[in-house]
Amino acid sequence: MTGCSSNRQIWVIAAAVMALSVTLTGITAVRADTLKTVKDRGNLVCGVSEGLAGFSALDKTGKWQGFDVDFCRALSAAIFGDSEKVKYVPLSALNRFDALKSGKVDILSRNTTWTLARDVEATLSFAGVSYYDGQGFMTGIEDGLSSALELTGAKICVLAGTTTLANAKAFFERSRMKVELIEFDKREDAVKAYEKGDCATYTSDRSALASVRTKLAKPDDHMLLPEVISKEPLGPAVRQNDPAWTELVRWTLFLLINAEEANWSSKTADKMPDTIPIEVLQAAGKKMGASENWAQDVIKAVGNYGEIFNRNVGKDSPLKLERGLNALWSNGGILYAPPMR
C-alpha cells in the first residue's frame, strides 16, 4: 500500500509539473515581440480615428495629419530613423480595441481615454497621457443656452462605444434631468444628425467638439457650453503582453515632453541640451531596440510636444485650443514626464 501511495504522489507531482510547464509555455507563447514584427515588416501600423481634424485626418493631398498622427511619426523615427515608415489604419470607436488586440495594428494613437476597465479588463496598456481632456457639450448659439443644466428634454447626439455615453448618462442622472441620448456608431453620422437638427446638442471630448466645430457649414453659429463633466486622459495604447514595446512607446512620449521643457526643438535637434545627456539616451535606446540616434531623429522629425500641439490643435492651427492643463507643469499646466537621466 505504501508503494501505491508513493506512486500516486509521484504521479500527482508529475502532473502538476506538466501543468505548470504548459502554463509557462503558454505565457511565453502569448508574449509578443511587437518591435521585431515592426522591424521585420519595415513599417509601423498605427490605428487612428476615421477623421478628426487636428488629431488624425486626411489632408487635401490624401496624407494623414494631426496630433495623434505626429506621435506615430515620432515612434517611427525612434525605430527606423525615418518618420514616414507608418501605415495608418482608420478605426471606429467600436472596433479600435479589437483591432489592437488581434494584431491588426501595433498601436492605437486615437483619442482614447485611459480607464480602469480598459487597462485591466480589456488587457490594454497605456503608455502615458498625451492629452488631458474633458467631456463637454456643443449647441447652436441661436438656442440661447448658457449651461448644460438647461438641456432638460433635449435630444443629444453621442458616439457609441465611448466613455462619452456613460459620462453623459451619469451627469444627467446626478442632475435629475431627463434627456434623450441618441447613439451613433460613426462620428460623421452623429455630426450630420446634429447639424441637420435631429439633435439639439452634441457631446464629446471638448477637443473633439472644437475639431468638429471647424468642419460645420457655419462654425460661428455653434458654441461650447461651459461645463466639463469628466476627466479624459487620452494617450497611446498598446497590448499588455509586450512590456518592452510599451516601454519604447512610453519613453518616446516622455522624450517629447522633456524636450519642450529643455527648449530642445526641431530647429535645434542637432544640439543636445545639457539636461538630457546623450550617453544616457544612446544607452537606453540600444536597450529598447531604438535607432542609434533615436532622440535626435524624433525631435528632428516632429519637434517637441509644444511644437506638435501648436501645429495641430493650438495657436498655429484652425482649432486654436489653449494649452490649459496640457501646458508644462512649470507653466501652469499638469504636463509632466520623468527625467531622462
Task: Give structural notes.
There is one protein chain. The protein is of the alpha/beta class. The protein has two domains: 34-132 and 234-331, Periplasmic binding protein-like II (D-Maltodextrin-Binding Protein, domain 2, 3-Layer(aba) Sandwich), CATH 3.40.190; 135-230, D-Maltodextrin-Binding Protein, domain 2 (3-Layer(aba) Sandwich). It has twelve helices and 14 strands. The chain has helices spanning 2-30, 34-41, 67-80, 96-101, 116-120, 163-174, 187-196, 206-215, 243-261, 278-288, 294-302, 305-312, and strands at residues 44-48, 57-58, 64-65, 86-90, 107-108, 124-126, 131-133, 135-140, 155-159, 180-184, 201-205, 222-224, 232-234, 237-239. Strands 10-9-11-8-12 form a five-stranded mixed sheet, sandwiched between helices. A three-stranded parallel sheet has the order 4-1-5. Strands 2-3 form a two-stranded antiparallel ribbon. Helix 3 runs antiparallel to helix 11. It is globular. The model is unreliable at 1-30 (pLDDT under 50).
Stretches where pLDDT falls below 50 for ≥5 residues?
A: 1-30
The helix content, as a percent range, equals 40-55%
Coarse structural class:
alpha/beta
General form = globular
- Strand fraction equals 15-25%
CATH H-level homologous superfamily name of the largest domain: Periplasmic binding protein-like II
The end-to-end span amounts to 66 Å
> In DSSP terms, counting alpha (H) and pi (I) runs of 4 or more, how many helices?
12
**Order of helical and strand elements:** HHEEEHEHEHEEEEHEHEHEEEHHHH
Q: How many structural units, i.e. domains?
A: 2
The CATH first-level class of the largest domain comes to Alpha Beta
